Predict the structure.
Amino acid sequence: MIRLLFALIAGVVLGGIVHLVSVLALPRIATQDAYSRLAAVTKENAVTTLPQTEPSNALLPFMDPAFAMAVCRYDLSKGPIKLTVPVSQSYTSVSFYTRSDVAYYAINDRSAGRRVIELDLMTEAQHEALPEEEDVTSADRLIIDSPTATGLIVLKALAAEPGLMAQAQASLAASNCRVQTDPPAAQVKGKR
Amino acid sequence: MRLIFLTLLALAIATAVGLGLTWTTATRGTDLGTLTIGAWTARPRTGTSEIDPYARASIARSGELPIGTGDGVTFTATTDDKKKPLDGRCDVVVSGVTPAARFWTLSLYDTKGRLVANTLQRYGFTSQEVVRSADGAFEIRIAARSRSGNWLPTSALERYVLMLRLYDTPVGVATRTQKDAPMPAIATVGCP
């Protein structure tokens, strides 16, 4: 009897461990997470505009139908990324997600404060490798550190009325996301 | 023989308890860091890097992308203010005011997060298109059949989910009560 009780308690304790391990492992083993779904339809290091959210095309669950969306799936192993997004009429935002869909940074048109949102995305190692002077001289240049080498940049533009959707989509289509071709270190050497 | 049986029993309990708990928390969600105002709930921390492991497991399973905190915050409602589940065959009125935000959108989804098809192609309202009374308050009627004013069609779906998204808003991790964030009331006014 005591042995049976012991087996039950051991089972529940082990169960708790199984639960914790499986919760922590789930984001790693999930195959239908947002990144995997978007990876199938997007190009790497380029802006892909997504079709308008409608009942027939549910790319991701719970997407806001009032927004035009575009995705830049990035891989920083080839170098830092430069992102430019023209601001649309009503509201534009740029959100950054890691490979495991964690939103680590988001900015909207007002906090960017300009007609075009301009950002540099790099890994922490690449940021440290930047010459210090350059970091200072271009204080208005916004540099964002990505915790992972790969991830998603989601660009959204609000169509405040259904008729404005085409306009919102057009402003996102004009945005640009690409690997910086000229290495910043070499540029500074030339200046000296 | 008995030892083997007891070990197997303990392992079986461990698997059932562990995976069962993981399944329920990943599908139903947990109350960790949840902000509840009336019938509305939000998890502002889900849009930051401090997202808890349960929310991470949940988004990895569902495939949704949480809104980044610098972008906005999502409030979800599955019941009315009297805890009655939202029924698409009934008339439900969402009325009142919303917290301070540059824009908000209200959208209707089925329980899996898909938009609900209807002939009007109306899946929600934005703060700009909603018709308001003189004091700035609004009233949205959610019903299966056409209604005057702000009508949001349900297509007589049995259960649905409402999402109120606030964009560029001070509401977030620091918000605690109704005073900081006055949410609109949800009332079921009649069932056929």
